Queue: 2 jobs
Job 1
Amino acid sequence: MPHDHEAILQKVRQDLPTDELLCDLADLFKIFGDTTRIKILYALLESEMCVCAIADLLGMTQSAISHQLRILKDADLVGKRREGKTIYYHLSDEHVRTIVAQGFEHLIEEQMPNP
Amino acid sequence: MPHDHEAILQKVRQDLPTDELLCDLADLFKIFGDTTRIKILYALLESEMCVCAIADLLGMTQSAISHQLRILKDADLVGKRREGKTIYYHLSDEHVRTIVAQGFEHLIEEQMPNP
DNA sequence: CGTTCATATGAATCGCTGTTCATATATTAG
DNA sequence: CTAATATATGAACAGCGATTCATATGAACG
C-alpha cells in the first residue's frame, strides 16, 4: 500500500493560492525568462529608449524588438511616449528593478564555492 | 537619414552586464515561468514534501513532477533528502521566497484600478 | 533473491513562442 | 499628395520544452 501524506497535503492545500493566481505569476516570470526581453528591461533600467536604439543595442531586427516590446507592454512592465515619429519606451514601475536584483543575488550565491 | 542615438547607446552599453550573465538571469526566470514549477516551489515554501505528495497535490503524474524537480535541483532551487524509499524535497534557500514575493507585488499593483 | 513501493530517466510527441519576412500605419518634410 | 523615417502587425517557420509512456534504478521487507 502506498504511503500516507494526507496531513501535509491538507496543510499545504489550505495555504496554496488559487490556480489562476499561480498561473498569472508564472506568466509574469515567463516574461523575464527570455534573453531578449531581459536585455531590453536591463537597458531601460538605465534610461528610456526608442525602438531602433534598442534594436541597435542588441543587434537585432526592429521587428523582433517591436514584438517583444508589445509583450512587455501588455504585462504593464513598460510604457511608451511619443515624440514625433519616434516612440520612447520606459519601465512602468520599479518592480522590475527589484525582481531582477533578486534574481541576480541568487545567481551570485549559486556560483560561490561552498565555504 | 535615420535619427541618432549614439549618446544613449554608449552610456547603456557601458553598464549592461555581459551576455552570459544576462542569459543566466533569463534562464533563472525561465524556471519560475512554468505553472507546474511555480506550484511546486509554492508548496515547498510551506513544508518539505516527497515526490508522490507533490504529484498528488497538483493532480499530475509522478513522472512529470520528477522531471520538473530535476530542473529545479539543477538550478539549485531545491535540495533533496532520503528517508528509506522516500525522497523529500525542500527549498535550498530563501531567495525563492523573495523572488516570488516580488512577482506577487507586481501582480497586485497591476490589478489595482488607477486612483 | 524476488517483490513491492518510491523515484528517476530516456525517447517521442505536440504545442507554444521567438524570429523573420512582408506589409501596414503613423508622423513629418517638401 | 508623395517620399522618407519610425514603428507595428500578421502569417509562417523553426526550435524548444513540458508531458506521456515505458522502463530503469534503488531501498526495504519477507
Note: The first helix of chain A runs from residue 6 to 15.
Job 2
Amino acid sequence: MTEESINPEVFPENNRGDYSAVQQVAYARDICDARGVRLTHIRQQVLALLWENKHPSGAYELIEALELQGARPIAPPTVYRALDFLIEQGFACKIESRNAFVPCASPERFNEHIFLICDDCEAWLELEDPQLEQQLADEATHAGFKPSRRVVEVLGTCAKCLLTQEV
Amino acid sequence: MTEESINPEVFPENNRGDYSAVQQVAYARDICDARGVRLTHIRQQVLALLWENKHPSGAYELIEALELQGARPIAPPTVYRALDFLIEQGFACKIESRNAFVPCASPERFNEHIFLICDDCEAWLELEDPQLEQQLADEATHAGFKPSRRVVEVLGTCAKCLLTQEV
DNA sequence: AAGATTACGTTATAACATAACGTTAAAACG
DNA sequence: CGTTTTAACGTTATGTTATAACGTAATCTT
C-alpha cells in the first residue's frame, strides 16, 4: 500500500469520478495487488491518461501522450496491450461507437455500464442501471442467448452543450 | 411498383427476416419510392448482400462480393456511400462492436434496435423492446441529455452454439 | 539458480474509413 | 425540350484503427 492508496469504502457510490487521476491509479493499484495481477508502469501511465483526458481517448492519442512523457517511440501494440489489461480488469471500457477508451469508475462490475456520450463536446457519463441490465438479460434469456458482454451507448447532446447551442 | 413488390402490411410484425433478399430489396424499393429517395443499383446490390449474408458483413467483404458480381473494381467509398444511405433510410445498421453491417428488419424505427450477436457463429438477432427504449430515454432525460442515437449490442453465445459446445 | 511465465519492444501489415475532386446521370425548371 | 441544378458515382490517395509474429527482458516459481 502506498501513501496515495485509497480505501475503496471511501468512494461514495458511483462517484469516483471526483478523484484525481493519481488517486484513481492508486485505487487500481490496490485492487491489482489484491487480485495478484500487475499494474505495471505503462499500464499505470495509460490509466492515468484515460482519467486525465476529459473525453474518450483514442489509442493513437494515448501513444502520442506517452511519447511526450517518455521521449521514446511507443508502438501501437504497447498501448493496445495496456488497454486490454485495463479492460480485462474493469479499469477501462471501450466506447465502440467511437473506437476510443474511457476509464471506468466501477471496476467491480463488468459490462454493466451505460454510457452517454456528447457528440458536441465529447464528454461522457457512465451510468449503471440494474433494472435495465436485468431487462437486457431477460431479453437474451428469452432468445436462448448467453450474454458475455453488453454494449450500451447513448449518443446525443449533453446538458451543457444543449444550453450553448439553443438557437 | 414491380412484380416483386411487397405490400408492407403483408409482413407480420417483426418477422420480416423470413423473406428472401430479393423480397427485402423489393420492400425497400417501395419505401424509397414513397419517400422520394433513390434506391440505385449499387444500393440494391449492397442491401441484397446484407440480407444474403448470415452474419454481419464487413465493408471490404461487401466490396469483394460486388467485384465478383460486376467484374469491375469497386473502391471503398462506393460501398461506404451505399451503406450510409441504407443506414440513413433505416434499411441497415452498423454493429459497432464488430465494425460490420446488418440489414434491418424495421426500417420505420430508427435506433430502436437491440442486437444479440453470437461470438461463435456470428449469427445475429434484431430485437425491439419499447420498455427498454423508454428506460434508456428516461436515464438520458434524467441526466439532461438529449439522445440522437442508441447502440445496444449484447455479445455472447446463441442457443444453437450453446448446444454444440456444451462440454 | 534454472526453468516457466508474463510483459514488453519492434517490425510489419492487416483492417476499417474518409477526403477530395472529377464525371455521369437524374431531377427540376422555365 | 434543352438548360440548369443537384445527387450519385468513379477514382486516387491517404488517414485511422488494430493485430500478427517474433525476439528480449523482467518477474515468478520451485
Note: The beta strands of chain B are 92-95, 100-103, 114-118, 124-127, 146-157.
